[in-house]
Amino acid sequence: MSIFNLPEIFRTHIMGEKDEPEIRTLDGPWKQNELIGDCAMVDRTLEHPDDVIVDEYGKPWVSAGDRIYRIGGSWFSPVRSTVHKVGGRAGAMCRHPDGSLIVAIAGNGIEIIAPDGSRNALVNSDTGPMKCITAIAIGRDGNVYLTDGSTKFGPEQWVEDLMRSGETGRLLKLYWATGAVKTLRDKLAWPFGVCEIDDSSVMVSESWKHRLLAVDVSGSERTGPKVVLGNLPGYPSRIQPIEGGGYWLALFALRNPLIEFVLREKEFLKEMLETVPPRYWVAPAMATSDDYREALQLGAIKQVGMKKPFSPPYSYGLVAKLDRHFQPVKSMHSRADGKRHGITGIASPNKHSLFILSAGNGKLVHADEEVLSK
């Protein structure tokens, strides 16, 4: 198949499909802007960051590598102090009401660090090892909800899970008093975020199906998951409640017509996976490398060597604000030519403040009341 035939194929194969909705466009509450670019820099030299939370003083803690850092000072000279060193690559984090810190360890479950410094590792659930914990949230009863992105791949292999149409993710519940971990829902397509809605349900972001899913956790077998917000323009990751109502939702990359096309063309996809190095796959990315060997979509991304801000990119920065009913009301962007892509972590000390973690570019930025009010 010649690449010069792709535009015609797009018209007949993608636009002509009736059984799949078109990608939600970036208009209305999704309209592009540069608000993430307007945020104040907190730290621009993080290596392999994954998640951010805030402590009781409103200071950000970031998981990066095998460390948990507390960050302060000015952006040009950040003061980064190590709070904890963990037994592997740290990912999702959450503070328990009793003061414990819960940290996901890539490929090896979670580590619970008590206020007195003692540690406890949990690596198995009732349905097998926890290899890919992507998000952690505390329930009102003190128990803990976990999302396990995949039972086959680790967190760093998310692109391969997408390319292979992975649906082995799980929603888990950790019973705090006993340490037992129970599977509440399986066969999820890379669940990457979770938060409690009420005593009987939680919200899960399902990345590869581009949607938010309300899951009944009351034990009723008659109630299946409900799609609350579907056909998102990107791949959703973590979700955080906002003081006073509403939610912040991070999306770590945008959907792209070329990628959607490749995912449907199974023979081409198989050949690409077998013959092309992973860094050059037609796939979303946390950040683009600017390598000349990247697929450029017939000039749709670059023109005269410059990235177009409105191009259909492989990497992007996007945070959406949702109302109490999980419907979008506004969004914040770092466009195709921006340098704050791959948003995986968000933390809101209060309704007038938001920390945004760019895992793709290794940066932590802060949106104050002025930025959030735009």
Give me a quick take on this structure.
Helices cover 11% and strands 42% of the residues.
Distance between the termini: 46 Å
CATH fold topology of the domain at 48-306: Neuraminidase
CATH homologous superfamily identity of the domain at 48-306: TolB, C-terminal domain
Q: Strand content of the residues, in percent? A: 35-45%
So what's the oligomer here?
single chain
- Strand order across the largest sheet: 1-28-27-26
Instruction: Give the C-alpha Rg.
Output: 20 Å
CATH class of the domain at 48-306: Mainly Beta
List the uncertain runs: 1-19
Q: Please identify the structural class as seen in this structure.
A: mainly beta
Task: Return the average pLDDT rounded to an integer.
Answer: 89
Which architecture of the domain at 48-306 per CATH?
Answer: 6 Propeller
Gross morphology: globular
- Can you count the helices? 6
Count of beta strands: 28
Helix content: 10-25%
Main sheet attributes: strand count, strand direction, barrel closure: 4 strands, antiparallel
What do you see in this structure?
By secondary structure, the chain is mainly β. The protein has a domain of 259 residues: TolB, C-terminal domain (Neuraminidase, 6 Propeller), CATH 2.120.10.30. The protein has 6 helices and 28 strands. A hairpin with a 5-residue loop joins strand 8 and strand 9. The longest helix has 10 residues. The termini are far apart.
Write the layout of secondary structure elements.
Elements: H1 6-14, H2 35-38, E1 40-43, E2 49-54, E3 60-64, E4 67-74, E5 77-85, E6 90-95, E7 101-105, E8 110-113, E9 119-122, E10 124-125, E11 128-129, E12 133-138, E13 144-148, H3 158-163, E14 169-174, E15 181-188, E16 191-198, E17 201-206, E18 211-216, E19 226-229, E20 234-241, E21 247-254, H4 257-264, H5 266-275, E22 302-303, E23 306-307, E24 317-322, E25 328-334, E26 343-350, E27 353-358, E28 363-367, H6 369-372
Antiparallel strand pairs: 1-28, 2-3, 3-4, 4-5, 6-7, 7-8, 8-9, 10-11, 12-13, 13-14, 14-15, 16-17, 17-18, 18-19, 20-21, 21-24, 22-23, 24-25, 26-27, 27-28
